[in-house]
Amino acid sequence: MGFARPLGLLVPQFVIFTFLATIFSVINISILAPVMEILFGSKSEREVVSDAAIEIPAFDFSVDYFIDLFYYHLNTYKAEEGIMATLYFVCGVLVTSVLLSNVFRYLSALILERVRINVIENLRNKAFFAITHFDLGYFTEKRKGDIMSRVSSDVLEVESSVVSSLKVLFKEPFLIIGFFTAMFLTSPKLTLYSMILIPLSGGIISYIAKRLKRRARLTQDTLGRISNVIEESLSGMRIIKAFSAKRYITDKFKGEISNYSRHNYRMASRFNLASPISEFLGVFVVCMIILIGGSMVLSEGSSLTGAKFMVFLAFFSQVLTPAKAISNSLTTINRGLASGERIFELMDSQTKINEKPGARDINSFNEAIRFENVTFGYEEKLVLKNINLEIPKGKIIALVGPSGGGKSTLVDLVPRFYDPKSGVITIDGVDLRDCTISGVRGLMGIVTQESILFNDTIFNNIAFGKPDATIEEVKAAAKVAHADIFIEQFDEGYETLIGERGTKLSGGQRQRLSIARAVLKNPPVLILDEATSALDSESEKYVQDAIENIMQNRTAIIIAHRLSTIQNADKIVVIKDGEIIQEGTHATLMKAGGLYKKLIEMQSF
Q: How far apart, in whole angstroms, are the C-alpha atoms of residue 366 and residue 236?
């Protein structure tokens, strides 16, 4: 319920509206007693009604006072106007009471809806915020489909249970208390029997509801795996078709669907059992009340008349409605609780990259980035071992070596996508962990091997890191990246939608947009991870020229498999199996021989 904020005046308004709706709901049935006595009672009963309150009762803040006051006016009206006019009067009061009851019930329902919307809006926002706050290692360990399922389908389950839980907590108890009070005033003895019978049936319903929770958790976990298969299939559809793997992926999907269906059927068998059992128990309890109450009416000297007993049954039937609503809500709530646990598990997960209290906000780069005895690994496997490296300001540092050697991992440590297991990485002599994360990443522009673009316009993709950028700035960045040539060929220019992940563009065009995005940010440090690998020869030449232009007076860290593109670097660092085995300029490394010379010769060949 903490997610329902801001509540403001919603809670007191809801209490008032629910209270008034309950009062008028009780009045609706209470009016039946005089109607039935006037119309269907014996002559003596009708006389009792007419003689019940000759004088106006003295004020007393009690239920009896208001009952006597009503009978006083009823009898006065009856004495002056007659029985038929009294009947019209009572029916008019009944219609007015029903109207007011439903008006207040409608107003309380609107408040419940506002609370529900607040809960779901805040829950989704916080869940998505938690996802964006996690470090990259979290997404390596978790299935994306399961994360998507928690934010979408699990939140929908919570949404349906929120309304049920609000009614169980705040609405139905009001009604039950109100009707039980009216029942007690009608017949205390019969009410006592009712209070013994109802909890017995309620206990059976709650037992079924508890059994639902575990099954609901299994069902939602399975649904997460289904989402994961769908996400992987959509992302890899080209490979699925290229390798004729339709049967394999279809069988995998069928297996998850079958598993989901099995858990869902078992849960449904329990869920659907609640309603018929509650109905049977409800009828059973009603029959017991009729048996007990009927015997009381038929016994000599009983104060319970036939009319009062019928009114009691009417009250009791109204008690069953919120009671049954509570029992049915318990099943929905338990499904929501299972989904809520999965959502809270997501939100409560701790990121491994945390910002220290009072972290230093760094906004400039003046000297160098240094790795001092840095070791890093995923789980138990070490990827980098005792790395010592200096990256001076204004220098171009190239990282080369066999695939899987740790080059990309090394550059991921610079913007604090990960933290080293041991050792220190400093910028201008300050440990990165002592700086704000936004400050560190604000100094860096990153272009990765895979062009990460969004289903938006070309303008918004280039201006992604600088939302306040003007069209002139975006065009200037696109020109530096040689992207302006193809952008101007589109009918809508910079307002062209590029599709999901930029599927409407070629690989070279996507990469040039990524470079334009980095250019617009104008960072002092550039990280280029295979930035030209997806380009054709012509595009590569354009982009390489652009990169050389923007790297002037900047620090650049370049990962490249095409070694011809980094021969002019100030320092080339050769990494193999997580260790630096060579470093120097192109000329010194060629002269020294070793792995770098071997790689150059292989590519030249």
A: 44
Tokens of 169: 């907590």
DSSP conformational letter for 375? E
Express the helix, strand and coil content of the chain in percent, nearest 5 each.
Answer: 65, 10, 25
Nearest to 203 by CA among 330, 13, 388, 384: 330
Query: Residues of 30-43 as b/e, b for ≥16 C-beta within 10 angstroms?
Result: bbbbbbbbbeebee
CA atoms of 512 and 481, how far apart (whole Å):
6
Cβ burial of 577 (10 Å; 0-12, 13-18, 19+) is middle
Phi-psi region of 501 (alpha: psi -120 to 50; beta: other; left: phi over 0): left
Strand partners, 369: 391, 427
**Between 501 and 205, the higher pLDDT residue:** 501
- Rounded percentage of the chain residues whose pLDDT exceeds 70: 79
- pLDDT tens sequence across 152-168: 777 777 777 776 776 67
List the one residue out of 529, 554, 553, 532 whose CA is nearest residue 544.
532
What average pLDDT does this structure show over 47-62? 57
Given the structure tokens 């005792």, which residue do they identify?
A: 386
Given pLDDT bands bounded at 50, 70 and 90, which one contains residue 581? very high
Indicate the helix (H) or strand (E) that contains 422: strand 422-427
Main-chain phi, psi angles of 554, to 5 degrees: -130, 160
Per-residue confidence band for 515, with pLDDT thresholds at 50, 70 and 90: confident
Q: Tell me the whole-structure pTM to 2 decimals.
A: 0.61
